Amino acid sequence: MDIQIQAISKGEEEVLHHLMQFYIYEFTKYMSSIRIQDNGRFDRFNLDVYWTDQNHHAYFVRIDGLLAGFILMQSQTEEEPNSIEEFFIMRGYEGKGIGSNVAEQIFAMFPGKWYVQQSEKNERARAFWRNIISKCTKRNFEERFDERNCSIQEFIIQEI
Description:
single chain; alpha+beta; Aminopeptidase; 7 strands; 29% helix; 31% strand; globular
């Protein structure tokens, strides 16, 4: 299985918006505030920052050349650590180690300080991130909860 992380260009933004519909749908089970619009679609994310700010990055995940997910992230600045903003692997690829592989590749691409958070009710995401971060840092990370009870892991990825 060939797992690729491919930078998304501005010209591919519409493809990303289409893929994000599946991602947003997954969140309806955790967030009752998400509503589908009369046109049968969820609201679009404002993705402008990914085409205008050098510290914001959008990637497609491809498996054997086929779209399988995406990652939206912010790379480290003097004020902020690297952070995963959105991470999605399509359900048909779950349980095959693809998400872990992709997370490890992203961490290796951006060594340094990291910040990853998961919503309060998404226990599957919490377990996934705790597991992969623990593996990548040899259990050297801190976890805290914010005022909304979101789980936040903070850690450092060493340069290879």
